[in-house]
Write a structure and sequence with these properties.
Chains A, B: Keywords: FAD, Flavoprotein, Oxidoreductase. The structure is a homodimer. The first copy, chain A, is of the alpha+beta class and about 550 residues long. Helices cover about 35% and strands about 20% of the residues of chain A. Chain A has helices at about 1-15, 75-85, 95-100, 120-135, 185-195, 215-220, 225-230, 230-235, 265-270, 300-315, 330-335, 365-380, 390-405, 405-410, 425-440, 465-470, 475-480, 495, 505-525; strands at about 25-30, 65, 90, 115, 140, 160, 170-175, 180, 235-240, 250, 275-285, 290-300, 320-325, 350-360, 385-390, 415-420, 445-450, 455-460. At the A-B interface, helix 8, strand 10, helix 10 and helix 19 of A face helix 8, strand 10, helix 10 and helix 19 of B.
Chain lengths: ~550, ~550
């Protein structure tokens, strides 16, 4: 351990000296305790690339990963210990189950873990981490494994800790709307539970059937309701988390307001599991409103989309709950690859499509309000065509177009996915410039949460191709950085973008993050084993 | 500096060893680098008590403060340096101005600073802090000085840094609603600016005419709109802050979503200036909605108030923007001490009064909706009586009752103020138990943001009296802690409650806060001068 600590410190301070130096070789993961320390290379490392199912390198050439030899290899004694702690059922070594847990949803990232642990409560999580820490065994927390940035699967042979058995709802207060539950609860189950109580989750996303609330919180998942209900930083009231040395941090408040000291829970929201494993969550849920209306519209240019958003915020301010967009390439893709989907606005393809959802408490008024808004938008020329869902089936079919896009892209072949926040007025410029940059080799498909300034930029090609990748990166990151955007709006950094943080965060801020991590480690002197880089319970799926 | 650092470390680790030990003597402020390290006493310290204007001790007996002799005394050379840096106007030594800056709004906390600095931009803030750090001069950031917990004024002779001259609005984006401004902007000026643009601040509070946005953010001010628009953790999109060694931390993003690394800005929101001085703020502002309706109601018991809140959330969910309450003692106090105020529901005094505000986009529907809700509430027996404001003057008069309470309390004599978050169903139990506890010596007056679970508990007496204080504390903190409440919902800890943090936060969490502070200090090896304990730019007033 001492050697490890010494290496940590060397790294820490060397990274400071190296600040301002240009990247020569980017290393992430094991060779550094912290993924953010990625700006300098201390010793020569053999070139190593993981291969995806498709046999292509899935990282950019500059980003390679290496197993840190300081981490131990799992021994039979370790297995015995875990079996005593968790029972036979909690210790999974079955090849099929391990294969699934080692591979991400896209089949793009693949680890080689030999051990999956399934704790049933916080105490077991604490004991697992304490033991791994003492044995210097690397761990990766995993939830629903729905992430898109290589954050939820092992890279090498880490112990996978899945909190999926921790799925109890602990309390629900009907007056305050505060739900307290264990981290392994599947989002869709929480949505169903609340539905019966007359409430909804402030969070909804395409992966709701698999993703877990602990993972949602750990990755600060965004999704479809952020426009209305804000981010998890606003709605998560409390957390319980286990630090790498096994310390249980009780921050499980259920109060809407609490100004007593630093609000540390926010550090765990979106830190992708690198500071600890979230085990319980307390979240403020809004009452379910009875009246939901959905419109599907077409605009001929991006300027109209922006103006429509502004108008919608003004005219539908109180009830607007979603403002999603897709471009014509996205619509064509869905129509081609998803069974049973039809364009609600036939026959021609328009340049842009907008899905607007309102949620309120008065069916008659809300519908009239939305109809008046649509009429006015058509008359003023902002909207070329539009239709209001007449029943729940039609409403679902509208949402299916938007939510089916990730699946359609997977069916279309290889896909390079980028999840960007950009100033609204610049957002579509990137899409157009990317089309010029890529040429005819691949299709550039754009959709996303326009109301939140969040673009999902997808480059769809017949197969993965390094020449295409070289045209996308670093162009997409540089463009985003130049326009003060974020290279990860809601997906997180994961393995894919850990080394790219400098495109979105200032050097002083990154240095503070590194120091913070050391702060946590200093609290826990024997704790450098947590696999920082990709230890993400569950990433939010491109929603 | 080395000696200082060594003392820091001793303190840090000793505090760990002392965890679990019972408080014997509570020290806050200078004798410890960090206010949170308040659980043990390392060396004998002469007893010292500050006296308020009224000549009474304003801290509880166990809480005393001492000037740390390691801090330097301001010299003529220091004054010369600051005059060169800021010009004559930026260096205030005038007795009258210093007296105002040394005294808090309630006249309860009083420092003896000899120097008030007024930087005009971030660079000057940075230079001031860098210099103070190198000279080991203690500083206290101050904004509108409207705080209620002794956080915004010096305790001894700290240099006061007031960012009130940094009051430029830097940008406003009408599509996204993102406002970027300097920290010294007065909240009311921002509200006026946005009003012209068709937007509102997500934050409103009684002190808006004086308090500054940097202070609001630093103290995570709550106020009147939290029910609708959530806390500043949700609406602040970015910050610029200057750390104690002068490092400028650019976290001034304007994006709604950004998941790239730890979201460090949240540490500055509510850290009461102890980690750095906020110099710029980027905030998401909602569109102004045209229709505002206000009702003033009476309930006969607290259970009805709770049920009414639940009903309001369900029936007015989309448009509910405030749900405030006051009890009969609060109403009597306002009627007695504020000129021109009358009870909208005469002639008798009811047990509880509720102010409900809705904000929506359709005047006709919203009014009908609120009327129907009121009618139903009266019919079901939840509401004893009620009135809907017929014009803006009547609406203002309703709000004046609620907002005028702090002023009425000040006029009534001495007041002990407590700002608590409590589980809704328990909230009023505390008020009733406190009445039994205090007896006839003082009046217990309760009001607050019922919709947020935030009680403002006030004990109003003819004069400050240690016997009364002894009946209130630690009873009020113990009761709150026992019921998993927060001893500071929105006012912050300040000098008043820094040593009380353990009532609301677990030992592990407090220890992490301490370690985090050291992390920041380790980033800045020469930085222990920042006056951690009470360095709050501007506390939110009891709104």
């Amino acid at each position: 351990m001492e050697k490890w600590r010494a290496a940590d410190r060397l790294l820490k301070f060397s990274s400071r000296f190296a600040s301002g130096t240009k990247l020569t070789c980017t290393i992430i993961n094991y060779d550094h305790t912290h993924p953010l320390v990625s700006e300098c290379c201390f010793f020569p490392i053999p070139f190593y690339c993981c291969k995806s199912k498709q046999g292509k390198y899935f990282y950019s050439v500059a980003t390679t990963v290496h197993r840190n030899p300081l981490f131990s290899i799992i021994s039979p004694d370790d297995i015995s210990y875990f079996k005593t702690l968790l029972g036979e059922r909690g210790v999974v070594q079955d090849a099929l189950a391990l294969d699934a847990a080692n591979t991400d949803w896209m089949g793009k990232y693949r680890g080689s873990s030999k051990l999956l642990l399934q704790p049933k409560n916080t105490e077991e999580v604490s004991q697992i981490l304490k033991y791994c820490n003492s044995r210097c065994l690397a761990v990766v927390p995993q939830g629903g494994n729905t992430g898109l940035v290589g954050g939820s699967v092992p890279v090498f042979d880490e112990v996978i800790i899945n909190v999926g058995l921790m799925r109890n709802i602990l309390s629900f207060d009907k007056v305050s709307g505060v739900l307290v539950c264990e981290a392994g609860c599947i989002l869709e189950n929480l949505i169903s539970f609340l539905d019966d109580e007359g409430f909804i989750m402030p969070l909804d996303l395409g992966a709701k059937g698999s993703c877990q609330i602990g993972g949602n919180v750990s990755t600060n998942a965004g999704g479809l309701r952020l426009l209305r209900y804000g981010s998890l930083h606003g709605s998560v009231l409390g957390l319980e988390a286990v630090l790498a040395n096994g310390t249980v941090l009780d921050m499980l408040g259920t109060l809407r307001k609490d100004n007593t000291g630093y609000d540390l829970k926010h550090l765990f929201i979106g830190s992708e599991g690198s500071l600890g494993i979230v085990t319980k969550v307390s979240i403020l849920t809004p009452p379910k409103l009875s009246s939901v209306n959905i419109a599907f519209l077409a605009c001929e240019d991006y300027t109209s989309c922006q103006k429509l958003l502004l108008e919608a915020k003004k005219k539908l301010g109180g009830i607007l709950s979603a403002f999603e967009f897709l471009d014509s390439d996205a619509m064509s893709l869905v129509l081609k690859h998803l069974d049973g989907v039809r364009n609600p606005l036939p026959p021609s393809i328009h340049n842009f499509y907008i899905l607007i959802e309102t949620t309120g408490s008065n069916e008659t008024f809300d519908k009239e309000n939305l109809e008046a808004f649509l009429l006015h938008s058509v008359e003023s020329g902002l909207v070329a065509n539009g239709v209001l869902a007449q029943d729940i089936n039609q409403a679902s079919s509208f949402w299916h177009i938007r939510e089916g896009l990730p699946e359609a892209l997977m069916k279309a072949g290889a896909v390079y996915k980028y999840d960007l926040s950009l100033p609204l007025e610049k957002m579509y410029d990137l899409v157009e410039e990317m089309r010029v940059q890529i040429g005819p080799a691949a299709k550039v498909v754009a959709y996303g949460h326009l109301g939140d300034g969040n673009l999902h930029l997808n480059i769809s090609a017949p197969a993965y191709d390094d020449n295409i990748l070289a045209k996308i990166e670093p162009f997409v990151y540089e463009w985003t950085s130049k326009n003060r955007g974020s290279i990860s709006a809601e997906h997180g950094l994961g393995l894919m973008k850990a080394a790219k943080i400098h495109y979105s965060k200032s050097p002083e801020t990154v240095r503070l993050m590194i120091d913070f991590d050391y702060c946590v480690f200093e609290l826990l002197p024997d704790t450098s084993c947590l696999d920082d880089n990709h230890s993400i319970i569950c990433l939010c799926l491109s929603a």
